[in-house]
Amino acid sequence: MSSRSVLALRHLAFEDLGLLEPLLRRRGCSRIDHHDVGVDDLARIDLDAIDLLVVLGGPIGVYDDALYPHLAAEVELIRRRLASGRPLLGICLGAQLMARALGAGVAPMPHGRKEIGFGPMTLTEAGRASPLAALQGQSVLHWHGDQFALPPGCASLAETALCPHQAFMAGPAAMAWQFHLEADPRRIEQWLIGHTVELAQAGVDIAALRRDAARQGPGLAAALERVMGAWLDELQGRDSGVA
């Protein structure tokens, strides 16, 4: 099996590929790189040389162009990737950027609410027929204050009481998650330290979040394996370039 390359667009140092990196290496992806958005030059990315592009999370809003000018270039890069039909995974902010690239709105959740912590989702009919089917009944890590509208032609794959659209697919090779399935529960302390102000403002019980990470860890790792395995197997069957 030939080697595969993965590039992750990273907005915050500790919000990296996490559990995804060892999984992708086991699947034959021998070259895995992180591109630090706002530091590294987006114009130097050769999309044709990348088998899988992953757009990771971060605490900024996709609508904050005036504050973070690189967002427009990032959306354009994602738009080009979507047009190519080659594999793309967006996580949290990455999913919101994908939605924007596809013409959908992204805005703060009503009444300033945030969804932070571990909890299950309800899969829609489309979700139960997607690679996310393995998440039925499995708690995942939610960590967002914005939400996306569904892009035209895309079905909602999962929902929670606070957020009606937790995932979508834009064709078989482009998948977007509002939640964090990739976060390594063994490194949750980095998230707790890095987002301490947000956690305090949202009134989140940090000790409880830490306990939930320890309890949910094994199930999350197994769920990620099943979800990504199903998606990558489907892509391989379609000869989309990822093992």
Question: Which architecture per CATH?
Answer: 3-Layer(aba) Sandwich
Number of domains: 1
Query: How are the strands of the biggest sheet laid out side by side?
Result: 2-1-3-4-12-11
CATH class: Alpha Beta
Query: Can you count the helices?
Result: 7
Q: Give the CATH superfamily.
A: Class I glutamine amidotransferase (GATase) domain
Radius of gyration: 17 Å
In sequence order, what are the helices and strands, one letter per element?
Answer: EHEEHEHEEEHEEEEEHHH
DSSP strand (E) fraction? 15-25%
For the largest beta-sheet, the strand count, sense and barrel status come to: 6 strands, mixed
Overall pLDDT? 95
CATH topology: Rossmann fold
Low-confidence stretches: none
Count of individual beta strands: 12
Label the overall shape. globular
Descriptive notes:
The protein is α/β, with parallel strands linked by helices and 243 residues long. 33% of the residues lie in helices and 19% in strands. The chain contains seven helices and twelve strands. The chain has helices at 20-26, 70-84, 93-101, 125-128, 188-194, 196-202, 206-237; strands at residues 5-10, 31-36, 52-55, 88-91, 106-108, 115-119, 122-123, 140-144, 146-148, 158-159, 167-169, 174-177. It is globular and about 45 Å long. The protein starts with a strand and ends in a 6-residue tail after the last helix. 42% of the residues are buried. The mean pLDDT is 95.
Secondary structure topology:
Elements: E1 5-10, H1 20-26, E2 31-36, E3 52-55, H2 70-84, E4 88-91, H3 93-101, E5 106-108, E6 115-119, E7 122-123, H4 125-128, E8 140-144, E9 146-148, E10 158-159, E11 167-169, E12 174-177, H5 188-194, H6 196-202, H7 206-237
Parallel strand pairs: 1-2, 1-3, 3-4, 4-12
Antiparallel strand pairs: 5-9, 6-8, 7-10, 11-12
